Amino acid sequence: MSPAIGATFTDDSGRAEGGDLVTEKEVIVIFVLGGPGSGKGTQCGHIVQHFGFTHLSAGDLLRAEINSGSENGTMIQNMIKEGKIVPSEVTVKLLQRAMKESGNHKFLIDGFPRNEENRAAFEEVTKIVPEFILFFDCAEEEMERRLLSRNEGRVDDNIETIRKRFKVFLESSMKVVEYYESKGKVHKVDAGKPISDVFDAVKQIFSPFGEVN
Ligand code: UP5
Ligand code: MG
Questions:
Q1: Which of 17, 81, 129, 137 is 20 to 30 A distant from 166 in Cα terms?
Q2: pTM of the model
Q3: Ligand that lies nearest to the alpha carbon of residue 37, given by its number in the listed order
């Protein structure tokens, strides 16, 4: 497996500031992409247990930001309700902070980047190039069924917002997948199968990292 580029985190001046916050180890980032309800969060949970990655869901970080009472909270809440993509500046900062605070050097970034602007902003700010992209391919009818029966009280799990999320996914997020496909970096998994079958396929992809549990 080829090494990731961008061994440490850098601050605005471009100086490395990984030092005491992370490790001298190479930072490994895997983007976990797929439509709403394709199972990104579920599978990331399993990958964490088996392969020792830190799971960072961009959506979860944004929801935590709303709950923290941040000045951006209302804007983020409105974007999520409409299924729109929050400005890169906000999301990249949250991801960077969470990476630094984790103390780990291996990350699953779930649900980000969602458009080309997200992708370019992350690379520009962090200088990190993802190791590969794990892409969950799932039919809309199946994703819709899953989201409508999830029952976690998410403001975007209603049919009206779900349709908007699907549209944004197809129009913006698939472009990111296509970009990385053109670079030969996408591992596509059939995510329409039962959870354990999907994880069997995921496990194969992660086997070069070696199981920790
Ligand atoms: N489930 C999972 N796998 C299953 C399987 N194989 N068979 C049967 N059931 C399965 O799974 C969804 C449900 O399906 C669960 O009940 C699960 O048990 C079941 P989950 O693992 O939660 O799927 P996931 O792909 O994570 O779905 P999620 O709804 O989280 O995906 P989204 O991409 O829509 O949501 P996210 O939280 O990433 O983003 C929400 C919003 O935040 C976005 O719409 C956007 O407005 C905003 N956002 C940004 O603006 N920028 C970002 O960078 C990220 C988010
Ligand atoms: Mg999720």
A1: 129
A2: 0.92
A3: 1
